[in-house]
Amino acid sequence: EADIYQTPRYLVIGTGKKITLECSQTMGHDKMYWYQQDPGMELHLIHYSYGVNSTEKGDLSSESTVSRIRTEHFPLTLESARPSHTSQYLCASSEPGRNEKLFFGSGTQLSVL
Amino acid sequence: KNQVEQSPQSLIILEGKNCTLQCNYTVSPFSNLRWYKQDTGRGPVSLTIMTFSENTKSNGRYTATLDADTKQSSLHITASQLSDSASYICVVSDRGSTLGRLYFGRGTQLTVWP
Predict the structure, then answer these.
(1) pLDDT of B109 above 70
(2) What residues of chain A lie within 8 A of the CB of B32, using their CB?
């Protein structure tokens, strides 16, 4: 079992609300990632971080923002949620090494009404 | 365009039977190929990681093969169990950056019936 945790597991909110999805890992990994996944579709990278104070946007354009103030914590924030943000959000971290094995959290299923 | 294609899209088998899932990719340059298992509503869990020089790797009842020349991989599941019901995702990494960009397939949804 991976030591990477996401909260909440499920979130239903109204349009316009500000939300923060939490992600924490206890493995001491420097690299962390946020992926977005819709049913039956591939994972898309929306943000990643190489370490503290390092954040980059991924391949898929996203209106969300991230921060990395501590190694173990990589929260994702949506300032004003919209129905188009409805999706599953997966956080991951990778161990150092050539193949960089990924460990995923259980995900947050977000529904914006 | 770098892509990862998986087949079949979905598969139903009876408990105890074997099955093989396919993955074709066009990612270049190639670094490694990974298979993940994703239970419904959960995050993916790594099954195998294979580099260019490896053509087979096993993890219990799961055996992955890689043909880097034809850019094909397969995941063979032996003596399937109900708990094998999940989506199986093929992921290919390139050597284009230190991060090693990952290209995800859409997965094969496997259902094992009793």
Answers:
(1) yes
(2) 99
CB contact under 8 A, B41 and A105: no
- pLDDT tens per residue, range A73-104: 999 999 999 999 999 999 999 987 767 789 99
**Contact predicate B62/B76, CB 8 Å:** yes
| Tens digits of residue pLDDT in B37-85 | 999 989 999 999 999 889 999 999 999 999 999 999 999 999 999 999 9
Cβ contacts of A105 on chain B, cutoff 8 Å: 43
pLDDT, block means (10 residues), chain A with 113 residues: 88 96 95 93 93 90 91 96 95 83 94 95
- Concatenate the DSSP letters of all residues of chain B into one string: ---EEEE-SEEEEETT--EEEEEEE--SSEEEEEEEEE-TTS--EEEEEEETT--EEEETTEEEEEETTTTEEEEEE-S--GGG-EEEEEEEEESSSSS--EEE---EEEEEE-
Question: Which among A98, A100, A104 has CB closest to B43?
Answer: A104
Question: How far B102 CA lies from chain A's nearest CA (Å)?
Answer: 9
Nearest to A109 by CA among A8, A20, A41: A8
